[in-house]
Amino acid sequence: MFLKNRWYVAAWDHEVDRQPMGRTICGEPIVLYRKFDRSIAALQDACPHRLLPLSMGIKEGDNLRCRYHGMLFSPDGAVLEMPIKTERPNQGACARSYPVVERHRLIWVWIGEAAQADPALIPDFWPCSHPDWTFDGGYYPIKCDYRLVIDNLMDLTHETYTHQGSIGQPELMEAPIHTEVRGEEVFVTRWMPGVNAPPFWRDALKKEGPVDRWQICQYIAPSSILIDVGVAPIGAGATIANHDQGVRGMVIDALTPETETSTHYFWGMARNFDIRDQGFTERFKAQQGRVFAEDVEVLEAQQRSIEANPTMKLRAFSIDSGGVRSRLLLERLIKAQAAPSLEAAE
């Protein structure tokens, strides 16, 4: 159920420091740490000798020593010392290393064949690095299938009820949506002209009165979602194609599968207003964190219900078109990656 030969977010930039940190990505245990030059090493989190997690290891300069019998590994996984130091290092027992790139304040790890790792394939989270925007966010571990989070983010009608005290409003259920597949991306577009801004956006706009509101959800396979959101005063000239006249944000969601029923949820918001107000950034992040915590509660309850009702299947209605198209695209890509293996077996 995981798409290989892709980049996945493993951590925020501030999470990884000199001390080893373990994190499971697509079922693969990985240890991450920073070297003296601040670049990042990523190794399989299991000593090839007796499989003790290397995240429990001891840092020695840029190298990592297993805490069990003392095998010493370089940042690229090469064996530098054996348990008996007089023995020649056995390079057949090296630790697997993973390609890693730090971009947009996130640490990306390549899951799959290392020779195919191309940094140009990292999803373009452009607002996170644009000089006219500011970006921050947080992290939640969620006990659910990552595809349920994709469903949630590609169907924002749930905001009306799940987030009714912050960003939800009845017009979300009434506005028509347009769903489109472009290559390995899915777009869901919603335009809401002449509506009252919900509390979250009214405060950001700093004024009362009706607004034009938009939501453009962009799914990027396998598990990234950008949501272009905002409001503009009526008459400001905003359109679905051009909407920088009011306050605009880009919700950033990187959904990294941990296991089949658990997900690393890296979330944030980039914005093009009040970008130098650090206090507002902190308050904004806290408010967004509370909104996403409501999603976590719903998604974990949904996963428990799925497991408790094995004879029932998820149903899809018209509001689910974004999630359905995203799942079909992901399923097609996963089947395509399996095809060469099947041909080789034949």
Automatic annotation (TrEMBL):
GO MF annotations in UniProt: 2 iron, 2 sulfur cluster binding; dioxygenase activity; metal ion binding
The keyword Repressor belongs to this UniProt entry's keyword annotation: no
Give one Pfam family: Rieske
Q: Superkingdom of this entry's organism?
A: Bacteria
Protein keywords: 2Fe-2S, Dioxygenase, Iron, Iron-sulfur, Metal-binding, Oxidoreductase
Instruction: Enumerate the InterPro entries for this protein.
Output: Cholesterol_7-desaturase (IPR050584), Rieske_2Fe-2S (IPR017941), Rieske_2Fe-2S_sf (IPR036922), VanA_C_cat (IPR044043)
In terms of PROSITE patterns, this protein maps to:
RIESKE
Signal peptide span = none
Q: What is this protein called?
A: Aromatic ring-hydroxylating dioxygenase subunit alpha
State the species of origin.
Answer: Sphingomonas desiccabilis
